[in-house]
Amino acid sequence: MDFNPSAPTVMHIDINSCFATIEQQANPLLRGLPIAVVAYDSPRGVILAASIEAKRFGVKTGMRLMDGRQLVPELTVVLPDPDKYRFVHKKLNKLLSKFCSEIYPKSIDEFVLDFQSHRVESLPAQAGSMQHVARDIKRRIEEEIGEWITVSIGISTNRQLAKVAAGMVKPDGLVEINGSNFRQVYKSLKLTDMHGINTRYAVRLNAVGIHTVPEFYESTLSNIEAAFRSVNAFYWYLRLRGYEVDGIEFGRKSFGNSYSIPQNLSLVRELSPILAKLVNKTATRLRKAKYAAYGVHVAVSFKGGGFWHHGERLPQPVFYTSDIFKAAYAVLKRVRINRPVHTLSVSCYDLVEKPPLQLSMFENEEKRQFLAQAMDRVNNRFGSFVLMTGNMLAAKDAVKDRIAFGQGGIS
What we know:
By secondary structure, the chain is an alpha+beta fold. It has 14 helices and 12 strands. It has 3 domains: 1-180, Alpha-Beta Plaits; 189-249, Orthogonal Bundle (DNA polymerase, domain 1); 254-410, DNA polymerase, Y-family, little finger domain (Dna Ligase, domain 1, 2-Layer Sandwich). The protein has helices at 18-26, 52-55, 65-71, 82-96, 129-144, 159-166, 182-187, 199-207, 213-218, 221-228, 232-239, 268-288, 321-332, 365-382; strands at residues 10-15, 35-38, 47-50, 76-78, 103-107, 110-114, 151-156, 174-176, 254-260, 291-302, 307-318, 341-353. The strands form 3 sheets. A 5-stranded mixed sheet has the order 5-6-1-7-8. Strands 9-12-10-11 form a 4-stranded antiparallel sheet, covered by helices on one side. It is globular. Residues 10-198 form the UmuC domain.
C-alpha cells in the first residue's frame, strides 16, 4: 500500500510552553526570562511548564524545581493560575471556529482541526492552501490573543502524522507531511517521535529488525504484527501511510480530581474537608458536562509507599455534590490508614447523560436542583468556592485549582 494520495486536511495546533507563555503574555516583566510554572514552590515541587527561554537550558516539564535551579540558578518561579489558561483555551477555541467547524480540543493546549468535510471562504483552492490557513491562524493569534503566545502547527492526511509534524519544530513551527515529502521527514525522526511508540514498543520493533521510522514504513504487515501481536499492528501500518484510524471521538468515561497532601494527615476526619473540596470540583464539572454517574471511586496513596482504592456502584445515578460526597465518604471510611496520606483522589464513573428530575417523597428534588444550579452559576462567575458547603470550610485553601493534562483540564 502506498502513501495516502489525498491532499492533507488535518491540522494539529499546539501552544508552545502553554502555561509559561500565557504567564509571560499576562505579565510583560516575565518576557524573555527563564521561568517555570510549578505546582508548589518547594524544592521538590514539580515543574508544570518551562518557558522557551528555560527550555534552552534543559529545564523540562516534570522536573523537580530543585533540579531546574541546578540548571538555571536565576530561574523565575510562578505558581499556576488555571483561570488564565482556561480563558486563553476558550478564546483560541472561539478563534479556530471561524476557520473550521470540526474542532477537537485534545487538551488545554492542543487542538485538532479536520477540514475534510468543511469549506471556509478563507481556504484558497491553490496548492498549499492548508499552509495558507495555518499562517493566517498564527497571525490572528498574535493579533487577537497575544503577541507572546505562539503555536506550532502540523498538517497531514491523518491525526497521527499531523501531531508528529506539530512537534518537529518548536517554537512557532509549521510543518506539513504529505505524499511528496514523507520519506524525507521519516528519515529525520526516531521511532519514539511517533506518538504512541514508547521505549517498550521501540524495543519490540527492534526485536523484529525495525530500528528507524523508514524501516517501520517499509516493513511488511506480518513483521509489524510479530512486534505488536495485536490489531495495533494494522493500525500502525495505516497510520504510517497517512490513512486515518484515530478520528473517532469517544465519550467521556469519568470525571475526577486528586490532591497531593503536603501535611502529615492520617485520620479520616482530617481528610474529610479535602475530600469534600475534591468532590465539589468533580461534581461541578460533572454537572457542567450534563452527566450523572452511577459509580464513585476513592483512591489513597501513602507516604513511604502503598496504595488503596475502591469503587462503589450506586442504585441511582448521582450529580448533586452532597450525594457524591456521602458515597465517597462511605468509601473512604473503609480504608485502614496507618501512615500519612500522600495523595487523595476521587472520581465518578459509569456516566450517563443527566436523567430527568426524579421526584422523591422525602426531599424536594426540584429545590435541590435549582440550588445546585444557582451555586454553580455564582462560582462560575465569581470564582471557584465563593459558595461552598460547610464541610469544606476546614480545608480552606488546601486544595488548589489545577489544570489536568487532558480534556479534563478544559472544563
